[in-house]
Each structure stands twice: as structure tokens, then as C-alpha cells.
Amino acid sequence: MSEMVRGVTRRSALRLAAAFLVSPVYPTWADTPRILVHKDPNCTCCAGWVRHLEGAGFVVTAVETADLQPVKARLGVPADLAACHTAEADGYVLEGHVPAVAVRRLLKKRPTATGLAVPGMPVGSPGMEGGAPKPYDVVLFGPSGQQTFMRFLGVDVIG
Q1: What are phi and psi of 7, to 5 degrees?
Q2: CB-based contact 151:135 (threshold 8 Å)
Q3: CA–CA distance, 81 with 12 (Å, rounded to integer)
Q4: In sequence order, what are the residues at sequence separation of 6 or more whose Cβ sits closer than 8 angstroms to the Cβ of residue 29?
Q5: Per-residue pLDDT tens for 61-91?
Q6: Residues 82, 95: contact at Cβ < 8 Å?
Q7: CA-based angle 73:159:53, to the nearest 5?
Q8: Is residue 111 within 8 Å of residue 90, measured between CB atoms?
């Protein structure tokens, strides 16, 4: 037997196993839903939004698709809320430049809805930095209609 194997006793192995079972520390990714982003391969603002989500701790997979209309149709994104990228997160749809704070609130509260959208490409929203930020709404949408979920100025919550 090797030196390492001889040094492990049944008692030390049981202590190690018990420590793992009662330890409050576990990978943060275990609580973080994965986000699948469908984006145009030539869109730089979409890549900026992906970096924003990753910076907020989300695990993101980006799939580049030149024609996003079939994705939007399959996921039920209303035409008036359509933006430049569409994502899927834990059973919800995210359309456009939705701030990570709004995504976390959606996933915590779990309202009956299809998802969240930021229509258009508001200056100052995640991925659209570079100018004076403009206020914008994050819209909750689904079978029962649309309503404002949160309001932002840049990435700051204002309502």
C-alpha cells in the first residue's frame, strides 16, 4: 500500500465524510440557475449583457443564432416587447437588456408569467452603456397581459 492509503483510517474517513455532510459551505452555482442566451453573432450589446449576467454570478451559455424570430415565437415573446436577444432562465423568458437584479427578483418571487422584457435598447441598460442613461421599465409579461415589474436608470433601481 502507498503511504497515503495507509495513513487513512476508518475513523478519519468517517470524520471527513461527516464534515462534508454538515458543512454549510457548498458551491454557489448550486443555487444559481443557468441562463441560456440566444443572440445574434454580430451583436456586441448582446455580448455586453452576457458579461453583465456573468458578473452578477449567473452561469450563462450563449448560442449564436442569425434568425431569432423562431426562438421568440417558440418562447411566446410578444412582438411589441421584442429586443435583440432572448434568454431562458429556470422556466422563464428574458427578452432584451434585463438587469441581473430583476432576474434575481423574478426567480425569487416566481410570479405566474412567461417572463421579463426590456423593449428596445435603452441607453444605460446592461450591455448598452456608453451614454447618459435613460429611465426604462422591465416588463413582466404572460397570458394575463403586461405590467411594469421594476424601473431602472442604468443599472440602478428607481421603482
Answers
A1: -80, -10
A2: yes
A3: 59
A4: 59
A5: 999 998 999 999 999 999 999 998 999 999 9
A6: yes
A7: 50
A8: no
Q: Which helix (H) or strand (E) holds 108?
A: helix 100-109
- Of 135, 47, 138, 52, nearest to 92 (Cα)? 138
Using the CB atoms, write b or e for 92-127: b if 16+ within 10 Å. bbbbbbbbbbbbebbbeeeeebbbbbbbeebebbbb
| Phi, psi dihedrals of residue 122, rounded to the nearest 5° | -65, 135
- Residue recorded with cell 456608453: 130
pLDDT > 90: what percent of the chain? 71
Pairing status of strand 34-39 against strand 59-64: parallel
CA angle at residue 121 from 107 to 140, to 5 degrees? 30
Closest listed residue to residue 116, CA positions, set 66, 67, 49, 57? 49
Angstrom CA distances, 155 to 14, 19, 62, 101, stand at 48, 40, 22, 8
Residue 81: name the closest of 39, 45, 116, 42 by CA: 116
Residues in the chain: 159
For the chain, percent helix, then strand, then coil, each to nearest 5? 35, 30, 40
pLDDT of residue 43: 85
Cα distances from 89 to residues 1, 41, 73, 100, 118, in angstroms, run 49, 20, 17, 11, 15
